[in-house]
């Protein structure tokens, strides 16, 4: 483990090409800039994703695109008012814009020799990003530029730790996100300014998918429409920028540290698996059609 992360923008061209040849994996945080109540910075999601990316880079020596070029997200639920305008404090882009931007970035990384892209997802736009990564991978394959793209949210990867450590529902700007920022950028948290209130969903709560902080042991999943919330009036603060004062009281830097470090461990599991089984320039599912029967390479982290 190195004391310093490997930042893409600090590499020389020779450095970048050598890393591509010898490792072939790059870390790309994707987040957004948006309202997070009155107590958290607009860059909450970005700071979280970048911290994870930097920690992975320090532990593996892989390059990371930090600062992330993707600081504006595509999320209809969180980003727009009833007129379709971005809510105050939010930098919003369309699905097609985010698609085109990520495709161009990943194409550039491919031409530099990187065949595996690990996306660190810091914002709750996972439905959009899941579609976009599939679309981009397919389109680049048609250009004879096969690439492996993996994307996951940190809270999905750290779900068990999150359920154990976080005592309130997983709300936007709530206990968990506040804990993250208390850990990664404590000087930006203003707990005394929290004025959020719990949102009442537009349909009966019993029909909604449970919060990730609740134990989901039942086999039947109810409707995944937990974001069915009132759309804010024009010019109003984001209805999604809610973290109730009671939730925030439970936030601690220690909780954020445990959740984010668990997410890092899970990302490392994926990276280790890729490096043990595939050569730097091999693309799982394309150059290598089937998973190798045994580990082919040694990994020392």
From TrEMBL:
<dbReference type="GO" id="GO:0009231">
    <property type="term" value="P:riboflavin biosynthetic process"/>
</dbReference>
<dbReference type="InterPro" id="IPR003785">
    <property type="entry name" value="Creatininase/forma_Hydrolase"/>
</dbReference>
<keyword id="KW-0479">Metal-binding</keyword>
<protein>
    <submittedName>
        <fullName>Creatinine amidohydrolase/Fe(II)-dependent formamide hydrolase-like protein</fullName>
    </submittedName>
</protein>
<keyword id="KW-0378">Hydrolase</keyword>
<dbReference type="InterPro" id="IPR024087">
    <property type="entry name" value="Creatininase-like_sf"/>
</dbReference>
<dbReference type="Pfam" id="PF02633">
    <property type="entry name" value="Creatininase"/>
</dbReference>
<dbReference type="GO" id="GO:0046872">
    <property type="term" value="F:metal ion binding"/>
</dbReference>
<dbReference type="GO" id="GO:0016811">
    <property type="term" value="F:hydrolase activity, acting on carbon-nitrogen (but not peptide) bonds, in linear amides"/>
</dbReference>
<keyword id="KW-0862">Zinc</keyword>
<comment type="similarity">
    <text>Belongs to the creatininase superfamily.</text>
</comment>
């Amino acid at each position: 483990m190195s004391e310093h992360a490997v930042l893409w923008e600090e590499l020389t061209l020779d450095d970048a090409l050598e890393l591509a040849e010898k490792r072939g994996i790059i870390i790309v945080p994707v987040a957004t800039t948006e309202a997070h109540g009155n107590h958290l910075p607009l860059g909450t999601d970005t700071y979280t994703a970048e911290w994870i990316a930097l920690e992975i880079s320090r532990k593996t020596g892989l390059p990371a695109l930090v600062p992330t070029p993707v600081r504006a997200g595509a999320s209809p639920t969180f980003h727009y008012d009833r007129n379709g305008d971005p809510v105050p404090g939010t930098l919003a882009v369309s699905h097609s814009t985010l698609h085109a931007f990520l495709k161009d970035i990943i194409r550039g990384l491919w031409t530099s020799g990187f065949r595996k892209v690990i996306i660190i997802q810091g914002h709750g736009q996972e439905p959009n990003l899941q579609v976009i990564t599939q679309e981009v991978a397919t389109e680049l394959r048609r250009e004879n530029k096969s690439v492996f793209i993996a994307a996951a949210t940190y809270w999905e990867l750290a779900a068990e730790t999150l359920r154990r450590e976080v005592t309130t529902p997983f709300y936007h700007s709530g206990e968990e996100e506040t804990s993250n920022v208390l850990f990664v950028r404590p000087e930006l948290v203003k707990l005394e300014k929290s004025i959020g209130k719990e949102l009442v969903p537009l349909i009966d709560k019993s029909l909604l998918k449970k919060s990730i902080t609740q134990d989901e042991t039942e086999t039947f999943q109810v409707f995944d429409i937990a974001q069915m919330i009132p759309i804010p009036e024009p010019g109003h603060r984001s209805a999604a920028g809610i973290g109730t004062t009671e939730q925030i009281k439970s936030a601690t830097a220690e909780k954020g540290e445990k959740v984010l470090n668990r997410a890092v461990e899970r990302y490392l599991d994926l990276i280790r698996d890729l490096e043990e089984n595939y050569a730097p320039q091999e693309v799982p599912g394309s150059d290598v059609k089937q998973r190798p029967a045994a580990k082919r390479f040694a990994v020392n982290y």
